[in-house]
Amino acid sequence: MLELQFADSTYDKCLKCNACVASCPVSNASLEFGGPKHLGPELKRLMDNQQLIDDKRIELCTLCGNCDMSCPENVHVSTLTAYLKAIHAEQSGTKFRDLVLSNAEMVGKLASAFAPVTNLAMGMKPVRKVMEIVMGIPAERQFPKYRFNNFNRVYNRKYAYTKRKAAYFVGCYATYNAPEVAESFIKVMEHNGIEVVKPNQKCCGVPMFANGQMKQGMKNANDNINSFIEYTRQGYDIVVTCTSCTLALKKEYLAYVKTEEAKELAGHVYDADEYLLMLMENGEMNMNLAPMNVKAGYYSPCHLKAQGIGNPAMDILELIPGYEITDLGAGCCGQCGTFGFKTEKYDVSMKIGKPMAEAVEELNADYTVTECGMCKNQLDQLTEKAVKHPMQIVAESYERAKVLV
Amino acid sequence: MYDVIVIGQGLSGLLSAIWAKEHGYSTAVVSTGTGKIIQSTGVMDLIPGTAGGLNEWVELYQMSHLQLGQLTGAIEQFKALTKKIGYPYKGEIEKLSSIVTGSGHVKKTALYPETISPLPEKGHIVIVGFEEVVDFQPAYIKGNLQKARPQLTIDVLKIKLGNRSQRTMTQLDAARLLDQKEIRNSWHQQIKRLIVEKNIRERDMFIFPASLGVEDWKETKDQFSFELNAKITEAPGMPPNTTAIRLYECLKKEAVKLGVRFYADTTVTGCIIDGEDIKSLTIQTANRLSNLNGKQFILATGGILGGGLEVTPEGLKETALRLETDEKGVMLHCLSNLYQVGASRGIQVTQNGITGGIFTLLSIHEMIDQLHQQMVIGGTRSA
C-alpha cells in the first residue's frame, strides 16, 4: 500500500469558491472531468481519517497547476490531485501505454538509439494505426522527433572552474529531442563567462506524477536531489531550460518529497531566462547582443506561469535591439505532457489548444517563442509558425555580436 | 526593477495594472490567487446592498468636490476599456438601473455588462432555469421577484441542458456549453416549445442565469432575443457568475497582451522600507523568499472580504505588506510611493464588507493621476 502523506497544511483553507474550477483548462473543455475543487480539497476532506476513495475521473487531470495559481487561499490543489492519481494507479492499475509514456527517459534512450528508424516509423500511417489500436495513441497526433546525436552523447562536463558555475538540469526533451536547445544554453552561458556542468540526472518525474507513478517519481526526485545538492553545496546554481522540470525541482519535490534537502535544493533552482535576468540585475550579464529584426509571439507555458517569476523570457529577449515580442495571452496548450498522446483525451486536448492556435494566427508573428517542448509539440501540430526556445534566440544574438566584433 | 508593482489581481489590481501599463510604465502584478472579482456579480454598484444614489454615496465615502469631478472621467475610462476588450459596460451613475439577481432580488446598480438588461416595472417576465444547474431556481426567484415587483406577470420554465456532467454543474459550465452553436439552437427550440405548451402568450423579458456564453455571449443574446422576440437578461447570483468571469478573463488577457508581468502563486509577506519609501517587496514563491524591486507600489488586496485585511484578536492586520493600521484598517504611516486602491483603503469605505465597483473605479482613476505625477516629478519615467 502506498504510504500517503498529504501536504496537510493547506487544504483546509479551501472555501469552495470555485476559482480553481473556473481556471481549470480541462474543466472548461469537458464536463467529464470531476474538477479540481471536487477531486482536490473536497475529496480529501471526505477521505480524511476514513477509507481511500479511488476516483476514475482523476485521469483527466493534467497537473498543469492552474488550480494552484488561481487559489486565493493558497491551497495547492495539484498536490492533492497528484496523490489521487497515485491512489487510482495503485488501486486500479496502470495501462501499459501510460507506463510507457510516464517513462519518457526510457523512451528517449531507445528512440534516440534507433533515431532514424523511430522517426520514420512514427511518420508512417500504418504503423500509427497499429499504435492507435494496440496502444491507444491517436494516429493523428504528431510526435517530437528523436535525435541520434542526443545531448548525452555530446556533453558530459562534470567540473567547472569559473566564478559563477551552472549545474544544468537538461531534461528528457532537450536531451533526446532538442539537443540544439541544450547547446544554445551552453553557448549563452559561455558568453557570460559561466561554465556549465551536467551532473548525473534522471527524468524529473513530472510524466510519472501525471500518470500516477508516484513511487517511481519520488525515486527519481530523490536521486536528482542527491546528485544536484552536491553541486549547490559547492556554490553551483541549478539552471533549467524546461519549464516542467523547473517546476518539479522548485515546487513538486518540495510538495511530495518534503525533505530538508528538497527545500535546500529548491532555493538554488533557476529557469534559464530567470537566471540571465538575475545576472543582469547584478550587473553580471553580457549585454553585447547583436540586433535582430524580428517580430515574435510569446506563448507562456502553464508551468512557467506557475513559478511566479513574471515573464523572464520576454524580459531577456526585449534586451535584443530590434527584437519585438508580444505575449499571445493564450491559456493552456492542451498537450499537457503525456495527456495529449492518449486517444481518449485527444479531443479534449485539441479543444483546449484551439484558442492558442487562434491567438498565433491572429498575431501573425515571424515565429512563436516558448520554453516548453510539449507546448511546442502542440504548437507544431496546430499552427503554421515555427517554434523556438528563447535560448536559441539569445545564443544567435550573442554569436552574431561576436562576428560583428 | 519595475516602475509599478501591483499587489492583488481582483478588479482593482487588474485595472491598476492595465492603466499603469498604458501610461508606459513597466508593470508587474503579484498575487496569491485570483481576486474576489471571480466571486462577484460583475456589476459595478454605487453602494452595494442599498438603493442609495450619488448624494448618499458622496456622503458615505466623504467624497470631496474634486473627487466627484473625476468620477465621470473614471467611468468613461472604464467604459472605453471594456469596449476595447470586447465586453462593453453600460449604465449611468446619475440614474441607477434596477436589475434582477439570481435570488429574485431587485437591486440598483450603476454599470453592468451588455448581457444584463434593466428590469421593467410592469409587463410579462419568463424566468428560464436549467434542470442541471441547481444554483438557479426559477420558482424561488419568481417568489422573491413577485414581492419586489407586484405588477409583473411571471412565468417559469426549466429546460434540460441535455449534457451529463461528472461534477455539480455551475452557471459557468452552462455558459461554456452555450458557446457552441448547436447547443444554442437546441435550447431556444426547447424554450419555444415550452412557451407553446404552457400557453405563455405575452413575454417582454426572459431572465436567464448568468450563463449566456463565455466567448460568444453576444451571439447567444442576439439569437435568443430574436428567436424569442423579447428582451434577454442574465441574473447573476451564486458564483461563478459568467458576468464576472468574462470581465476577469478579458481584463487579464488585456493586461498580459500589454506586457504586464504576472507573478502567480506568489505571496507578498512584507516589504523593505527606506525612510518614506518602499524599496522592495518580500515575496514568497514555492521555492524561495526573494525581493522584488519597484519604484511605485499599488496595494489592491481588498478589505476584510478580499483578504487584504484580517481580523485578529489584536485588531485589524494588513496582510501583505504587514504595515500597521488603525482600528479601521487605515495605514498609520504614510509611505510616499504606496497607493491604496479599492477596499484596501480600509474599512471606513466598506458597506457590508463590499466597497462597490464605482468607488474602486474612482480610487484607481485618482491613483493613476497621482502616480503619474510622482513619476514625472521623480524623473524616473521609463521610455
Detailed description of the structure:
- The complex is a heterodimer of chains A (405) and B (383).
- With 405 residues, chain A is of the alpha/beta class.
- Among the domains of chain A are: 8-92, Alpha-helical ferredoxin (Fumarate Reductase Iron-sulfur Protein, Chain B, domain 2, Orthogonal Bundle); 294-404, Rossmann fold (3-Layer(aba) Sandwich), CATH 3.40.50.
- Chain A has helices spanning 8-11, 19-23, 25-29, 36-47, 66-70, 77-92, 96-102, 104-113, 115-122, 125-135, 151-154, 171-177, 179-191, 206-210, 214-232, 243-256, 260-266, 272-281, 302-305, 312-317, 346-363, 373-382, 390-404, and strands at residues 165-169, 195-197, 236-240, 269-271, 294-298, 323-327, 367-369, 387-388.
- In chain A, α4 (36-47) crosses α6 (77-92) and α8 (104-113) crosses α9.
- The longest helix of chain A has 19 residues, at 214-232.
- Chain A is globular, with a radius of gyration of 21 Å.
- Chain B is of the alpha/beta class and 383 residues long.
- Chain B folds into 2 domains: 2-90 and 246-273 and 285-378, FAD/NAD(P)-binding domain (3-Layer(bba) Sandwich), CATH 3.50.50; 117-235, Rossmann fold, CATH 3.40.50.
- In chain B, strands 1, 2, 11, 12, 13, 14 and 17 form a 7-stranded mixed sheet that branches. A 4-stranded parallel sheet of chain B has the order 8-7-9-10, with helices on both faces. Chain B has a two-stranded antiparallel sheet with strand order 3-6.
- In chain B, a hairpin with a 2-residue loop joins β15 and β16 (315-318).
- In chain B, α1 (11-22) packs parallel to α9.
- The radius of gyration of chain B is 22 Å and the shape is elongated.
